[in-house]
Structure formats: C-alpha cells, structure tokens
C-alpha cells in the first residue's frame, strides 16, 4: 500500500483521512505501507496561521503514534518518507529520515524511516 499526504482535509486539521488509512491497513493487512509526507503540511492554512493546539513536532508525533499503534495488530511494515512540505522537519534536499527516538521497542522492527530521495529494496 502506498499513500501520500497531506493526511488532513484542506479546511481542518482533523486528520480524518489518516484515521481512514489506519482502518484500511487494519482491515486489509498489507505487508508493506509506504507513507509519503507531508504529515504536517506547511501549506495548510491553519498551519500557516499558527492555529495548532501544539508544536509542529507534537502534531507529527501524534500522527506517528496514531499510525504505529493503529496498525500494530496488522503487523504491516511502515516506511515513512519525508516531504519538503513537512513543517516539523528539515527543509533541505536531500532530506534526512525523520528522527524518532520514542518509538516503542515492539515496533522498531516494522517501522522504518528513510530519506528523500531513497531507494527501497522490498524482499
């Protein structure tokens, strides 16, 4: 499964499309999900106007937690690819992978953070 952000509707930061994606992964149980950013879109009107309830990093961590915990039972491998529009990440090219020191131990073998650009060798 491949998905590309932003994972919010254009008129709110509700992340309903992200919740729908988590349900799809839980139901279909794909072996691999490649998830392209942006996860916190720098071009979203509410982000541009600083109408977030937390920091950019906090919003990203909540997205990450939603995806990782919501797909744990499916056992799918998750690959996170950054976007230049990810407001919480370095806006340089090539982009380094997202840092994620808080990743739970049980998820480290199935959650992968890659750079942009990258080459993925699947199986």
From TrEMBL:
Stored Pfam families: DNA_pol_E_B
Matching InterPro entries: DNA_pol_a/d/e_bsu, DNA_pol_alpha_bsu
Keywords: DNA replication, Nucleus
GO cellular component: alpha DNA polymerase:primase complex
GO molecular function, a single term: DNA binding
All copies of domain DNA polymerase alpha/delta/epsilon subunit B, residue ranges: 2-122
GO biological process, one term: DNA replication initiation
Domain of life: Eukaryota
Location(s), subcellular: Nucleus
Family per similarity comment: Belongs to the DNA polymerase alpha subunit B family.
Full protein name: DNA polymerase alpha subunit B
Primary gene name: Pola2
